[in-house]
Amino acid sequence: xAEFVPVEPFDIIIFGVTGDLSRQKLLPALFHRYxxxxxxxxxxxxxxxxxxxEDAAFLDMVHDSCAPGVAEEFPEAQWxxxxxxxxxxxxxxxxxxxxxxxVEKELATDGRPRIFYLAVAPHLYVPICEAxxxxxxxxxxxxxxxxxxxxxxxxSADEINTGVGAVFEERNIFRMDxxxxxxxxxxxxxxxxxxxxxxxxxxxxSIDHIQITVAESLGVEGRDAYYDSAGxxxxxxxxxxxxxLCLIAMEPPNSLDAENVRGEKIKVLRALKxxxxxxxxxxTVRAQYNAGHVDENRVPxxxxxxxxxxxxxRTETYAAIxxxxxxxxxxxxxxxxxxxKRMAERRSEIVIQFKSTPHNLFxxxxxxxxxxxxxxQPDEGMxxxxxxxxxxxxxxxxxxxPLDLSYARSFSAVKYPDAxxxxxxxxxxxxxxxxxxxxEVRAAWAWTDELLSAWDQAGQKLEYYxxxxxxxxxxxxxxxxxxxxxxxxxxxx
Length: 493
Hints:
Elements: E1 11-15, H1 20-35, E2 44-49, H2 55-66, H3 76-83, E3 86-90, H4 100-106, E4 114-118, H5 125-134, E5 142-147, H6 154-165, E6 173-176, H7 183-193, E7 207-215, H8 224-249, H9 258-271, H10 280-283, E8 284-290, E9 292-294, E10 297-299, E11 318-323, E12 335-340, E13 347-354, E14 371-377, E15 381-389, E16 398-406, H11 407-410, H12 419-429, H13 438-458, E17 462-466, H14 473-480
Parallel strand pairs: 1-2, 1-4, 2-3, 4-5, 5-6, 7-12, 8-17
Antiparallel strand pairs: 7-13, 8-11, 9-10, 11-12, 13-14, 14-15, 15-16
């Protein structure tokens, strides 16, 4: 079993504690870290929300949230001890005149880290931070965690960052993108900078193109109001996909200190080629799903699930984008990004496709390119596809076979934490390396705003695809025009 290093005692106040994020991710993450001995019994976990709730009902909610993530029998004895860390307060968190004194009495006075986790809508970030300041709850070791997205465009992101920055110093602001806590995403740094095998090949000299896919089989499931105001680009591309692109394309940092890592990522974002209305249709596809079948179940189309006032929505649930990085390492290498709701399967992966050999010695099937496939979900791992001779007499027959590293198989005896568990402990430690900096957010929104503006100016056509498929035909044509194809997750047989 893995040994986890305990973190120093801390207090955490979760705003929006009754919401989906808290119930599905934050509370289970804290319980799992407690069970593994990382969280001290002196810590306090305080839930804050607007609704009234008795203490017993709150504990039942937390218990029900934590139970599904426990593989073996639920550790009742540990739960009873963990429950003593919990308490709930009904508070309008934007109100400095609310009963903050009651909350303050729950908090330690020894200067330990005090974490304010804002699991609420982004427009509430600044009012809550101002209320915390006015109520006197902020101190030198206080930290605030902001969930993505930070705003809905560059202007709103700047307003949020400026407002939060007026209360908390930048070193105490943790902008969460949970993808950066995934094992495979972190392993990108190890793969690139701890293995000399790949670094000489990691450029336009050897790589033909790169694909990044975040596909979801789910629809909007109760998030229709938020999602319809955001769409696939704001919800996934601006944060998850661009962060993955940065880790793939960044130059080696001088160290893993937050400022060095962030500095290299910012260089990538600023080097991304932008968009113009005249050619946006050749570089991108935007689409929306219709009714279809997912896992053999009939599911409605996007518009069918929306309230009557949104039935004419043109919000994209799918986006495919071709872009390039204008620097010496990556000039001429296309990066293909795609994300979508209600696709054939839940699959997030990065495909680095290398160039074919300059001369084919082996005839038909002898010039298949090598591929490095990094799987983020559902089963984290990596595969390096190599050409090998198929056994048998007669002519030379080649086959593409993967060297396969599956975390589940290779580390079957190790229980490793999920992304939120790891990132929450990094917040306690004050480690900013896996969190976005203010300039990163600005650079990502500047590129995203240019994309969305080009769509508006060009009147970019909205395509359609059936739920349960891999997206619209136009997305395949996006690569087909370049003589390429999306990786389908199946090796050449």
